[in-house]
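It would be a great kindness if you could assist me with a short task in structural biology. The full record is reproduced below for your convenience:
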Amino acid sequence: MAWLDTFGCSSCGLPVLFHGDPRHPGHVVIDHVAGASAETCSEGLPDLRVLHRFCRRRVRAGRDGCSMVLRRAWLGWATVAFEAGRDEERYGTRHYLRFGLHPGRLSRPEEFRRHWRIRKMCCATRACRYYTRARAAHPLPGVTTAEDTCS
């Protein structure tokens, strides 16, 4: 199963986690493509895709039509919340859409969009760094990386 470590999530494109807590938002889930059947695949195989646990839940909720940056930002927000020990059931869909920001709680509510864009980019950056670093922590056996060859 080690060869699956090379796969990225079909929704956000970031590497999936095969090690650690299965409740982690970035843990691997292999799911059937909704609405597809085995007859649509040219090789007769079922149409499966590799997803993060969080991305699978979001796709099933019908929120897959967003930009790649937004999908990665949501994953980053969920990962930060999980790492902080917060229960994911505590947050609803609107909380993820707003990245925890509430217009009424800001000192200047008219600047909500600006704060939201900044938080979106910060969360997307955190997700990219976290999942590429996690993949480097568990490299494929026998494969050398650029860090291994540099002295």
